[in-house]
Write a structure and sequence with these properties.
The chain has about 120 residues and is of the alpha+beta class. About 35% of the residues lie in helices and about 25% in strands. The chain has one domain: Aspartate Aminotransferase, domain 1 (Alpha-Beta Complex). It has a six-stranded antiparallel beta sheet with strand order 1-2-3-4-6-5.
Length: about 120
């Protein structure tokens, strides 16, 4: 799995912003709401993002995918390099994370982003 490709997927989503938080994390957001994060200097430390509630346990049962530190209660996972995910599956999970966060934005903000 290629974490640089994962960053490109995030950057390609409508209204995505990218910034640095907590001194060393690259955070991808939509409407000022975070949907994915990774270490800016060492992306091989993993990629974290939100998942559907019903997929959380399924995904964290797989080798190399753990509950994301500090965000597990919000159903975030952290995908480590040793995870058995191909690039297409990771891209789909990132798009779904974006959709989950986008759906929680106000209708007005959703219209502004998609306009």
């Amino acid at each position: 799995m290629d974490f640089e490709a994962a960053k490109d997927v995030c950057r390609s989503l409508p209204g995505c912003t990218e910034d640095t938080k907590w001194e060393n994390d690259t955070v991808f957001s939509v409407g000022a709401k975070m949907f994915a994060a990774t270490n800016k200097d060492v992306p091989a430390q993993g990629f974290s993002f939100k998942v559907d509630d019903e997929r959380f346990l399924e995904l964290t049962d797989r080798p190399g995918i753990i509950p994301a530190p500090y965000l597990a209660r919000a159903k975030w996972v952290k995908v480590m390099p040793e995870a058995q995910l191909d690039d297409a599956e990771l891209a789909g999970l990132l798009r779904r994370s974006y959709e989950l966060v986008f759906a929680r934005l106000t209708r007005k903000l959703q219209r502004e982003i998609t306009a």
